[in-house]
Amino acid sequence: MKRQAPQFDALDTAECPYYLITRASLAITAILKKSLAGAGIGHVKPAYLGVLMGLWKEESLDEALGKLGSPGGMKIADLGRRAGLEPSTMTGVIDRMERDGLVRREDDPEDRRAQIVRLTDEGSRVRRAAASAVDAALGEAFGGIATGALDGMKGVLRKVLVNTERGTVE
């Protein structure tokens, strides 16, 4: 039997999931900006975090696999998928991240049509401070919410990503 889709009152801001998610996202982004600036890394913008997390994860995998000295990095298309960003958005984000000294683009030696994004020394250096700033901001935003409720919320958001064909969260 097919399950009936939930009904929403899109005109009631207290009950509309879209409105609540958007408002919560904006509020958390404001806290993140303040936390990153307070950590002395105001050049790391909340919009950069998905890209940085993808590159930091790749860098950690390279270290764990003993690829020290390898140039690392990811193709822009792969990084965009991991960060959940459209190609047109990725271009602007990478432009700003390059300007802020966090990443650099290089031609892919194996594919002339592609570019690889690599962390700069600065992009690697800010990793710990950014993680601490994000943890502090999320602690502030989600303070007083039970672990079980947070786990449930994350599960719901992952399911929304699958339902909207935005893939899975790595």
What's the average pLDDT? 87
Largest sheet report: 3 strands, antiparallel
Q: How large is the radius of gyration? A: 18 Å
> Count of DSSP helices?
7
Computed structural class: mainly alpha
- Fraction of residues in helix: 55-70%
Number of strands: 3
Labels describing this entry:
56% helix; three-stranded antiparallel β-sheet; 170 residues; single chain; mainly alpha; 7 helices; 3 strands
Q: What do these coordinates show?
A:
- With 170 residues, the protein is mainly alpha-helical.
- It is built from seven helices and three strands; from the N terminus they run ααβααββααα.
- It has a three-stranded antiparallel sheet.
- α2 packs across α3.
List the helices and strands and how they pair.
Blueprint lengths: L16 H22 L10 H16 L9 E2 H8 L3 H13 L3 E6 L2 E9 L1 H5 L1 H15 L5 H17 L7
Antiparallel strand pairs: 1-3, 2-3
Helix pairs in contact: 1-6, 2-3
Q: Short description, anyone?
A:
With 170 residues, the protein is mostly helical. It is built from seven helices and three strands, in the order H-H-E-H-H-E-E-H-H-H.
